[in-house]
């Protein structure tokens, strides 16, 4: 349990927003396996104001999809406020609103949004102050350790200003915008942010295992973590991390391949149930999901090639049913997971 503003959050291990991934089917799957707070996919303020059908489809939810938070991206304070109000009128149950100042994707940077705000701190502060003053729920921010380089003085000054602007928590990815998602995680930067503010700080970056989750806590002293790519194909990672932090013991599974296949089948069923398009229209998306769950299988390249050749839902369904034959021991790795994990 952790508090963000006046909201009690059931866990300090949170599912991060990921564009093109964390839809209702994904969230339903990870919640079934232990995730306790999830985010919608990142929402673009301009698209929301323009009433983009695709954007509103991303906000699909149901009564079991709780608690949930939202992350907005944009660069204009009043437009961000308008978008936040539209978002809250569409999904009133959102527990807190996050400002994205971390996305490093080129098309986002060209719009002077996302991680671009790391080199436009005054704009970010204005957005933070506007949303904090006008919204009736906690407002948080997702940042990086820098734009093109690490500068602890600039970083700590920024987070202090963000706290003064009324924010209730800081989520920080331990890399610069220039690094995107590669290179070493800067645990020192996250630790300095934690020491600079009194509001909760959540660390992220390379949390692919229980050990790496513990390392984030140990190296930074952060109050919580967010898991992103580490949950792709392993929806039980949230519960596993919680148990590991409490007991120091790893979750045991007699057959991880069967576990992965079962979770994949469930995930695909949720895609069929919740996506607006037909099963055939979703085949490409389902194939991407299948890639997540088969990562780490012996002869993974051959499996990826087989998935790429799938043309329709029937072929995909048959492939998943027969997945066991691709997941036998090969002497070094057990099906579905590297031995070192």
Instruction: Classify the helix fraction into a percent range.
Output: 40-55%
- Taking pLDDT < 50 over at least 5 consecutive residues as the criterion, the unreliable ranges are 329-341
Instruction: Report the principal-axis shape.
Output: globular
**How big a fraction of the residues is strand?**
5-15%
N-to-C series of helices and strands: EEEHEEHHEHEHHEHEHEHEHHHHH
The helix/strand class is alpha/beta
- Within CATH, the superfamily of the largest domain carries the name Aldolase class I
Query: How many domain modules?
Result: 2
Please report the number of helical segments.
14
Strand count:
11
CATH secondary-structure class of the largest domain: Alpha Beta
Query: What does the largest sheet look like?
Result: 9 strands, parallel
Write down the overall mean pLDDT.
91
CATH topology of the largest domain: TIM Barrel
Taking all Cα atoms into account, the compactness measure Rg is: 20 Å
At CATH level 2, the architecture of the largest domain is Alpha-Beta Barrel
Cα-to-Cα separation, first versus last residue: 27 Å
Summarize the structure.
The protein is α/β, with parallel strands linked by helices and 341 residues long.
């Amino acid at each position: 349990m952790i508090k963000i503003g006046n909201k009690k959050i059931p866990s300090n291990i949170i599912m991060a927003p990921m564009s093109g991934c964390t839809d209702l089917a994904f969230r339903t799957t990870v919640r079934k396996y232990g995730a306790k707070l999830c985010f919608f996919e990142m929402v673009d303020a301009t698209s929301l104001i323009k009433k983009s059908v695709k954007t509103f489809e991303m906000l699909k939810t149901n009564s079991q999809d709780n608690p949930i938070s939202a992350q907005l991206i944009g660069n204009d304070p009043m437009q961000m406020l308008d978008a936040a109000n539209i978002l809250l009128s569409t999904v009133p149950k959102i527990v807190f609103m996050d400002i994205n100042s971390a996305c490093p994707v080129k098309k986002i940077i060209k719009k002077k949004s996302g991680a671009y705000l790391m080199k436009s701190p005054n704009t970010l502060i204005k957005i933070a102050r506007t949303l904090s003053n006008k919204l009736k729920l906690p407002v948080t921010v997702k940042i990086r350790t820098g734009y093109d380089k690490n500068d602890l003085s600039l970083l700590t000054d920024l987070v202090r200003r963000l706290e003064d602007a009324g924010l209730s928590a800081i989520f920080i990815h331990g890399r610069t915008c220039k690094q995107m998602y590669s290179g070493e995680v800067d645990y020192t930067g996250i630790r300095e942010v934690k020491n600079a503010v009194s509001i909760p700080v959540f660390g992220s970056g390379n949390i692919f295992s229980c050990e790496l989750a513990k390392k984030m806590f140990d190296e930074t002293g952060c109050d919580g973590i967010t898991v992103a790519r580490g949950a792709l194909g392993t929806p039980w990672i949230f519960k596993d991390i919680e148990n590991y932090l409490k007991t120091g013991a790893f979750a045991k599974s007699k057959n991880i391949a069967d576990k992965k296949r079962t979770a994949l089948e469930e995930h695909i069923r949720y895609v069929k149930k919740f996506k607006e398009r037909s099963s055939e229209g979703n085949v490409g998306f389902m194939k991407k999901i299948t890639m997540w769950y088969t990562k780490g299988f012996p002869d993974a390249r051959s499996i990826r090639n087989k998935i790429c050749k799938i043309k329709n839902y029937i072929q995909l369904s048959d492939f998943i049913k027969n997945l066991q034959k691709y997941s036998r021991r090969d002497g070094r790795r057990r099906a579905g997971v590297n031995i070192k994990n």
